[in-house]
Amino acid sequence: MIRRHIARKPLYSGIASREGRSAARSCSLDRESFSRPELSSALMTTAPHPGRPVGPDSSAQPVALLALDDTLTDRAAAFAAWAKEFAAAHSLPEQWLHDADAEHSGRRRDFFALAKTTYALPGTVEEHYTAFRRRTPQLVPHRPAVNAAIQALAAHGWQLAVVTNGDHDAQHAKLAAAGLADLLPTVVVSSDHGVRKPDPALFHAALARLGATTKEAWVIGDSLEADIAGGNRAGLRTLWLSHGRPHPGGPLPQHTADDIVEACAWLLAQER
Ligand SMILES: [Mg+2]
């Protein structure tokens, strides 16, 4: 019944404060957040939830609908690991791959077309693209602090689901590589439903899978367009992961945290 205890904070409380921005900049996506006393305290010292109620009252449990890429997983780290492998396999500069990725972000076939012409790579653009899509999910790092944060939410009675845009096999492979597949068995992937975030239908599909309603649900994600705009449109509370970015304008979340570990600690702290 977390809703009773959540103090309604002003919209955008995390970003409006200079201190918050400074803290956000100081955090990196990969750091072990349990070394931060305020986060370990929030995650580790609250009394465990006595157990998940069953039956008609289960909709009153707090719900977290979690994005995947750059929320639960570190996509940049997976790309860096792939770039290292690919550069070694084809004898080309690893840094060139990072530079080309920045230039062709989101246009992966253009990226491989440029690599092929610049370095006379064997094989077709399509073959490289297919291999990339198969390999990078396997290179998503396992981050113990993230897994512990998710475990803490579950231990406190939160119902959890992953809501993600992408391909079924790739998204499940990422969860497995991150060691999150067993912790998060409810996964709603856009390719299975024929709709993508920010369409509210994908969030409502996740709530239906959990047997939950909108009133206890948070959407947590790094994308203002997909996660925050989508969650707002679905009538859910939203928590944006800034990863140190200032808010660029656009959809407003109810709260902002630097990363998923900080977000989980904040959600648990609201129960007190
Ligand atoms: Mg994302």
From TrEMBL:
<dbReference type="InterPro" id="IPR006439">
    <property type="entry name" value="HAD-SF_hydro_IA"/>
</dbReference>
<dbReference type="GO" id="GO:0044281">
    <property type="term" value="P:small molecule metabolic process"/>
</dbReference>
<keyword id="KW-0378">Hydrolase</keyword>
<dbReference type="GO" id="GO:0016787">
    <property type="term" value="F:hydrolase activity"/>
</dbReference>
<protein>
    <recommendedName>
        <fullName>Hydrolase</fullName>
    </recommendedName>
</protein>
<dbReference type="InterPro" id="IPR023214">
    <property type="entry name" value="HAD_sf"/>
</dbReference>
<dbReference type="InterPro" id="IPR036412">
    <property type="entry name" value="HAD-like_sf"/>
</dbReference>
<keyword id="KW-0460">Magnesium</keyword>
<dbReference type="InterPro" id="IPR051400">
    <property type="entry name" value="HAD-like_hydrolase"/>
</dbReference>
<dbReference type="Pfam" id="PF00702">
    <property type="entry name" value="Hydrolase"/>
</dbReference>
